[in-house]
Each structure stands twice: as C-alpha cells, then as structure tokens.
Amino acid sequence: MLLKSLFRFCSLKRYNFQDILMLQRFSQEESKNLNLKQEVLFFYFHSKKVFIKAEGTVLELQQAIRKQIDDVKSVGVYQQTTNDEQVEYASSTPMQLVLAEDMVLRLNQTENYIILNKVDNPPVIDLIDNYPITQHALHEYFQEIDVPQRTKVVLSNFIQKLLSEIEKHKELTYDKDLIMLIIKKVIMKLGIYSQAQKQVIDEQISFLEGKQNRLAHLKDSIIKELEMKEQTTLYQIYFYILMQIAFTQYGTYVVWGWDVMEPVTFMLGVTDMIIAYQFWMKTTKAYTFGNVLQNAVNKHLSKRLAEQFNYADELNDVNRMIEYLKFKQMVYSSDIYEVISVIEGAIEEKQAKLQAQEEEEEQLRSIFYH
C-alpha cells in the first residue's frame, strides 16, 4: 500500500514518465560469489530486482523484461532525447550501444521509465573512440593542470564536436576565418543542446526530489503511528513505578514493617539500576521516557518499512540519482568560455608555481656556489 501510494504521488501529469530508475552493477566480489560468467546488470522495478545482460541485443533485453515483470506484453527501448519524439532502438541493436547512455523503457505502449545508466561512474572525458590520439593527448594534458571534473567533461565534449565538424568538410582548404566560423557554429550548437538538456535534467531532478520528499513523509507517518502504539510501553513503565510505590508503602505500614521491607526496597532499587544500565549499554542513551519511546519506535520502524519495500535502498538510490543529475546539470550549465577561463587560470597558477620553484633553486645555487 505504501509503495503504491509512493508511485501514485510521483506519477504526476506534468511528467511524461512514471518513474526514474537506476541501472546497477554487481561488484567484483558479488560477481565472483554469484559465479557470473558475463556482466549482469539490474534495476529495481516496484521494489523487485530485474536482471539484464550487458551483452547481446535489444531483443534479449525485451524478452528478459517480459519474463521478469508481470503483466508486461510489449517492451520498447528508446534513446532519451530532449523532445517528445523519442528514437526507438531496433531489436537487433547491440546492448553495448544502448548502454552507452541513459535510455527509456516503454512498457505496454503507455508507461515510460527513464533508466539512468552512469550514476556510479559519471564521465570524466567523454570522447568517442574515433579520436584515440586526441583522447590520449587530453588525458595527458588534464594530468598536468588542476581543473574541476566538469571542466574536463565540457572541454572534451567541445573538442569531440569540433573534430566531428571539421571531418565533415575534409575537402575544404582551412584558414583562420574558416576555423573561427566552425568554432562559432559548434559553440552555438552546444549552447542550444545544453539548454535543452538542462531543461530535461531540471524536470528529472524535480521529479526525484518529489519522490524523496514522499519517502520522507511516509517514514514520518509511520513514526507517528508507531509512537501512538508505543505509548503503551510508557504506560507500562508508569504502572511499574506506581506498583513499586504502592507495594513498599503497603508492606511497610500495613503488613510487615520496615525491618522486612528494607532489603526488599534495596533489591527493587538495584533492579531499577540494572534495567537502566542495560538500556544504556544497548543504546548508549540515558534511561529517560523519551529515549525509551524512541528506542521502541526504532525497533519496529525498519520492519514496517521493509513490509512494503526496501526503504533504505530506495532512498539511497534516489539520493545517488539526484547527485548524478546535479553533476550533469553543472556540466550543461557551463559554457566553453567559462571553461577556457578556468583552464587559463589553472595554467597561470602552474606557471607561477614553476617560476617560484626555479627562483628558489636559483637562490639555493647562489648560496652554495658563491
């Protein structure tokens, strides 16, 4: 019930997708323990693990999803684009091509689910393999200067697009004006594309933040419900204290007298101390009514959340996806001029350090040799 209400809350009309899911990979240790002979990926669909192979074709992906998700008759796999006209992958498309970026699953022709693929390893240098020499040169260049990761991504993407544009016009004779014209064209294209991507990412972050808030609200509502139920624990403590008072008073002044009740009251006090000490040993908190109530709530909270779905994993996945999308948002918010300015600053800083080092070495030589 909780899980259904969560998805119903998140599937707002202004979004053209039902949910955003995260494609996950097994660690090397997990793969070894499971004896996996090839890479297997998975994502959570309504709190159920759905497994897919990293190799093969889109057809095998479609078959795997139909087998593992109930009531799914058709599966479409689409490239995530910045407009509503999504491009569908053919059944024969290799999974390596599909997994190179985020994708969209369309179930039964009506339900769209965005699958984020690179949450655990966002790109550092996003150059295609057509330019291995340039990629290596950039890698070496980035090792020499200290710049933020998003700067590396933006510059790499710009160089990739620039080289692609130059390759389209191999037959032309290049001069300074033509190169400047191509650079301006690439910058304009990247600006338009980045703006469109930023709008898509903003919508996805807004969706996930809504889901994050809903998860927090569900947890708060369960805590309040448990606090109401666990009030009986406090009543039991009150009753135990009142019974002690009544017993000691009745035994002292009505039945036995103080000579008999003195060791009894001493043992009752020791028992209370043992209970309080045991509570402190288990929780490292003082033995107070509030802490006793909180401990009783926490004891049942995880169990109640796990009855519907794995709350901790769900919240962790949402947080990781938001962090990944915010990184992409930063990348698309940066323009090439800002990146060049950052790189120039890093180069100047490095040159200043080298100059200071040379001056220090020169000073040492003058001290020891003169």
UniProtKB/TrEMBL annotation:
Localization, UniProt: Mitochondrion inner membrane
Annotated catalysed reactions: Ca(2+)(in) = Ca(2+)(out)
Record-level Gene Ontology MF annotations: calcium channel activity; uniporter activity
Protein keywords: Calcium, Calcium channel, Calcium transport, Coiled coil, Ion channel, Ion transport, Membrane, Mitochondrion, Mitochondrion inner membrane, Transmembrane, Transmembrane helix, Transport
Gene Ontology biological-process entries: calcium import into the mitochondrion; mitochondrial calcium ion homeostasis
The UniProt record lists the keyword Nucleotidyltransferase: no
Membrane topology type: Multi-pass membrane protein
Keyword set includes rRNA processing: no
GO cellular component: uniplex complex
A family per Pfam: MCU
InterPro entries the UniProt entry points to: MCU_C, MCU_fam
Calcium uniporter protein C-terminal domain sequence ranges: 151-307
Principal subcellular localization: mitochondrion
Coiled-coil portions: 340-367
UniProt family annotation: Belongs to the MCU (TC 1.A.77) family.
Name used for this protein in its record: Calcium uniporter protein C-terminal domain-containing protein
Organism field: Paramecium tetraurelia
